Amino acid sequence: MKQIKFIFTGPPGAGKTTAIATISEFPPVSTDVFSTDSLSKLKDTTTVAMDFGQITLENGQKIGLYGTPGQRRFKFMWDILIQGGLGLIVLIDNRRPEPFKDLAMYLDNFSEFIEKTDAVIGITCIDIKDTPTLDDYQDFLKERGQIYPSFAIDARNKDDVLFLLNTLLTCLETS
Amino acid sequence: MKIKKGKLAAFFGFKSQNQEESTEQKSLPVTDKPIDFGEDIHTEQPAVIDSAIADSKATEPVAINSENLLEPSTEIEEKTVEVEEKATVADPLEVEATNTEFKMATPEPTMDYEHEEEHLIVNYSKEQLAVSEEKLEEFMRVCPGAYGVLISTVDGHELLYLVKRDIPVHKISTMNSSLLALGESIARESSQKLCQFVILENSDGRVVSLRINDILMLTCISSKDTNLGMLLSVGRNTAGDLMKILS
Amino acid sequence: MTILRFGIPHLSDPEVRLVKAFFRLYSQDPTFRWTIVEGPPYDVLLVDESVSEDVVAGTVLTLTPVKSELPNTLERPLRSDHLEAWLKKAEYDLRNARLQPQPPEEQPIDEQRIDPTSSSHFKLRRWPPPALLGSNPVRVRMATLISRRALRLDEMAAITEQPLAECAAVVNLLRGAGLIEIQDLPDKPMTMGRAGGRFADQSVKQSFVSGVRNKLGL
Predict the structure, then answer these.
(1) DSSP letters along chain C, please?
(2) In what ranges is there compositional bias, type Polar residues (chain B) (predicted)?
(3) Cα separation of B138 and B205, whole Å?
(4) Is the pTM higher than 0.90?
(5) Touching check for C36 and chain A: CB below 8 Å?
(6) Which of C146, C158, C151 is nearest to C187 (CA)?
(7) Which of A107, C91, C124, C143 falls between 20 and 30 A from C50, CA-CA?
(8) Minimum-distance CB partner of A130 among C21, C151, C206
(9) Which domains does chain A have, with CATH numbers?
(10) For residue B52, which of B98, B91, B95, B7 has the smallest C-alpha distance?
(11) Chains interfacing with B (3 or more CB pairs < 8 Å)
């Protein structure tokens, strides 16, 4: 049985580890270590290899939930983790200085993978910083000639994460 | 002998922006250009110096005040000192130069968004770094097959390194941080305790990674001229010494 | 369900952000029908009193520096409760107006509505604003489907297992906001799945998707 994965990516602090923990059937395996750069202003630890959670279907099929490290210097891990991936969930932290730039960076770096599969976007912390708005994100994507389902989510909220995953499944239904 | 020595970004509080300037000082081509890292903003390496192994008694290899260096307005300051060949090398092919210009440039800090995460919070005195450097040199002397030893942060930023070959130290630091974290996770999932080493046994050499403390790790790269036991033992002792120095 | 189009093209950036923030709050109410649109036609256009140019809108709501007794005015600074109350009243008025018999010259507007029997293909141009879809999973699913490929109503109905009329309603909702592109493609059997994809065939894919949804209680 082929291993099937969903990949969570996005900048450090966007909620990838939390989102996986929210829906995984066991506490996710994480590779978090202390942050030693400016990221430490936001959070004490950062993922340097991957997060791994899992869902097991009734027929025994296991679905891997993999979170990538956020920083671009770990791109080698991104390329490893997407192998066998079924789709990408991009989480963007609205508090970051340039969230559009973040979004563009992940969409560009995962473009080949997205081309083969699909992607949905979850914007986190929009309740803390309300600009840019979801509409602004869509304007930005439209300028890039892209349409991705995008939602404001709270990575700690299981319904929100499942909503994203469900939308990704719908994308896969037609892709 | 040609050895590249990297001074730590943490020491400066940021990474080198004038890589081109510093690489001009090198006689060997360096493979600093990243492979498959896209437009990796983190590929710039800290000031890289081509030199013979610096005389450990050259107590003031660089006239830098680390506190001043953390100020954004600090201007580039350079100082050139003469250093002498010191270490023993196993591979004669690697031996190249003796007295080499030892030069270090202090980069201006980058405050733009893309480099934001480059600003390391760890900060060591030049004395701590100088003593750490001696430990790295000692490691290289004791392990005849060793051709690289790196101190880096556990989240993948190189701090101080000594290499005899052109190897992409930034990439190795980053990848080994992932590898060590994975090793520690696998140990935990296997109901085993402290992960002491992550060992890559290759056809012509070995790469051993181990923790120094909560935020630093050591990577030892060696040919098969050093046996594994020796590499592990010396690596562990070096890490122990560094833990005391860099506590 | 009819979406009502609210325009704010003449306002300053801070006021635009303020109004958008209000609308995000209002959209928590599933009965809220308004959405901010970028271009005409507008059901309501919110303008500063200095705007004197001709505006194309059903109703013009004017912002004034002090409270005015004139109808369709709101004083600055704009307050969420005032705007919401005004929108509810405007919605009521518009609904009543639309229930009145339409004069013959307005018949073409009705003809533009997508009929459930339509055989056209519909494709989403841009992901809809949150106020349009809310957290309604059926609407989100339909929007997602036609964001990926142009589909007929019957294809949408088959995938989502929803009545044709519901699919037409969602398409009309999106079309009302100017987000739908109508494509007259040749009819051919619906095929899904990319060559070389992860699934050997459509049934395996559907089985997998259903399995994940069942597991997650979706």
Answers:
(1) ---EEEE-TTS-HHHHHHHHHHHHHHTTSTT--EEEESSS-EEEEEEETT--S---EEEEEEEESS---SSSEEESSP-HHHHHHHHHHHHHHHHHHHHSPPPGGGHHHHHTSPPTT---EEEESSPPPHHHHTT-HHHHHHHHHHHHS-B-HHHHHHHHT--HHHHHHHHHHHHHTT-EEEE-PPP-----S-TT-SSSSHHHHHHHHHHHHHHHT-
(2) 16-28
(3) 20
(4) no
(5) yes
(6) C151
(7) C91
(8) C21
(9) 4-174 (3.40.50.300)
(10) B98
(11) A
Whether A101 sits inside 8 A of B189 (CB atoms) is no
Q: Which of A40, A73, A75 sits opposite B121 (nearest CB)?
A: A40
Closest CA to A67 of A116, A122, A115, A112: A122
- Chain C residues with CB under 8 Å of A6 CB are none
Min Cα separation A49/chain C (Å): 25
In chain A, whose CA is at the least distance from the CA of C123? A147
Tokens of A56: 């097991």
Q: Taking CB atoms and an 8 Å cutoff, what residues of chain A touch B215?
A: 33-34, 36
Taking CB atoms and an 8 Å limit, are A59 and C211 in contact across chains?
Answer: yes
Contact B184 A30 (CB under 8 A): no
Cis omega (within 30 of 0) for bond into A132? yes
Instruction: List chain A residues with CB under 8 Å of B41.
Output: 72-73
Tokens 């997998």 belong to residue: C208
| Amino acid identity at C42 | Y
CA C207 vs CA A127, A172, C100: distances in Å? 37, 12, 49
Segment C78-132, tens digit of pLDDT: 888 889 888 888 887 777 766 555 444 444 444 567 888 888 899 999 999 888 8
- Match 């190897």 to its residue by tokens: B167
Digit-coded pLDDT (tens) for A45-57? 999 999 999 988 8
Q: Which residue has the tokens 């709101």?
A: C74
Q: Which domains does chain C have, with CATH numbers?
A: 4-101 (3.40.50.10850), 114-191 (1.10.10.10)
Give the torsion sign (CA, B71, B73, B79, B84). positive
Q: Which of A54-63, A111-120, B89-98 has the lowest mean pLDDT?
A: B89-98
Q: Does C215 touch chain A (CB under 8 A)?
A: yes
- Are the C-beta atoms of residues B147 and B164 closer than 8 Å to each other? yes
Q: What is the pLDDT of residue A174?
A: 76
> Which residues, including other chains, have CB under 8 Å from residue B127's CB and lie 6 or more apart?
none
Rounded Cα distance between C145 and A157, Å, is 25
CATH code of B3-245, in short, is 3.30.450.30
